[in-house]
Protein 1
Amino acid sequence: MDNIIYKPATKNDEPLIKSLLAKNNLPYGDIKAENIIDFIIAKYEDKIIGVIGLEIFDHVALLRSLCVEEEYRKEKIGISLYKKITAYAHAKRIKELYLLTTTADKYFNRLGFEIVNRLTAPDLIKMSLEFKDYCPSSAVFMKLSLDCAI
């Protein structure tokens, strides 16, 4: 698929991003128009078919909402979104990425993330709504030092 456009999300994309996340059982309640600027979307024929985002806290960030419409999952859109968001994180001088997942730990392990104890999370990450409220305590907590990212 050559016609996929990757671009920063805008405030106008917020409802469509939330709809995509809801359809795929991913948390979206704390995503607001003002923090959507740290998200990247994939569009095909004017439809948002993928998204990924960061919740940035100083020099660390929480990787958020990697999601691709089911019918496009074999098109390598997820890895393209991931590479774009890590490049964005480097540009923002992010040193470590963290994430919480209930289903994709093996996928993220292949990308270099390692499972770490939730108790080791930086305090700013612990204060995020995703960490405190939206992801269950059974979610796997993972970390990636960006100097070893793809």
Note: The longest strand covers residues 47-57.
Protein 2
Amino acid sequence: MRGSRHRRQLGDRRAFGARYGGRRLTSTLAFYTYNLLLLALSPVGAAYLGWRTATGKQPGWAERLGYVPVDQTPGSPRIWLHAVSAGEVAAAAPLLRELLAKAPDARVYLSTITSTGRQMVASACGGAAGSFYFPLDTPGAARRALSRVRPDVIALVEGDVWPNFVHQASLQGVPVVIVNGRVSDRGYRRARYIRPFLSWALRSVRWLGAQTELDAERLVSLGAPRHAVTVVGNTKFDANLCPLPPTEVSALRSQLGIEPGAPVLVAGSTRPGEEEQLLRAYKKLLAEFPNLRLVIAPRHVERTTEIESLLKDAGCRSVRRSSGAVQPGGGNAPVVILDTMGELASVFAVATVAFVGGSLVPIGGHNILQPIAQGKPVMFGPHVNSIRGVAAAVVDAGVGFMVADGDELASRASELLADPVRLDALETACIELMERNRGAAARYADAVLRAATNGRMPLNA
């Protein structure tokens, strides 16, 4: 009997070793294959990045090679937050605030990949000790950047995991954690094709905090150790977006040239292919609400001239926010193009109803919590795979409305604009939704600080 049990246990161990040892070997081989591919493609990559730098499309060339500018002012712990672009920076801002509240002497550095993200750091993350472009994922660039920043911990916002960077951090004894982790539908489909690369990197991450149960399951299926993954929530509910006082709302309306009492549709983070649908909806709504004003905030302000042409072709007069041609008090063009950085979150306060773009076209959706934080019901299209959890939450709360196209947007907006009593109730529901979901940023901050201080703070506090 004892011999039979011993053979069975030995067989179980061998099966376990064959299964998990094989996975480890596969992902290790994948890591070396990844670097061989990088080496083979490096001449093409260097030429491409050189061209982007020469044309002004790729700033921060030296930083991408790891020569990051870092202020060496003393402070502890030293924390490196990485946020790919504007959306991730918005998620990082509440975490930064909590980190500095819990550890006032900390030095927190932010890296981004896009110029839009870098610009947003300046406006949204004032407490950061510095910012720079994330290094290319080569051993040399990662090693140089790490030696300059000298972090006690690295927190990857929403899970931008790069194999060589994580490996170099591991070699230097720097713990890596993922905060506000999410895996979009499109990202998950793509990630399965490079699972061996991701699996190797994810196994080197000490702790992974996910926004939702689905995000957690997807991280595990891509190779993250199940014991290291925890569902924590979404830091964007903790964004410092308190409703503007009525006096400030009135002043902002006047600055935008919107007369008192006029209803306003604010369309934020719009993308190509959405403005055309938005303008058709706006013209339909004008037949019912002739004093309706429209504020369009393109996701990329360099598209302002293009949007002006669209408006002109549609027969709509417009004015740029930055032009100085907006006259306080009203009497201006009915459409304002918000071509400034960092104002959109506040401008949603002047809205009667709101729309957030990147959702009528297959982008994945943008930050629909900005209007919600100002007490405004929000409409968005069906392409919300990047904000799936938040979209479900606002729809379930009755303050978010998915629309299929511009026609449905016009119909839903008309329904809301015609019912002031309902709008008042929705304002209250929006604020309650934000309050119910706050707290994730503080929990993530505890996890980051525990990793930075070798467990002297409770992880999941």
Note: The first helix runs from residue 2 to 54.
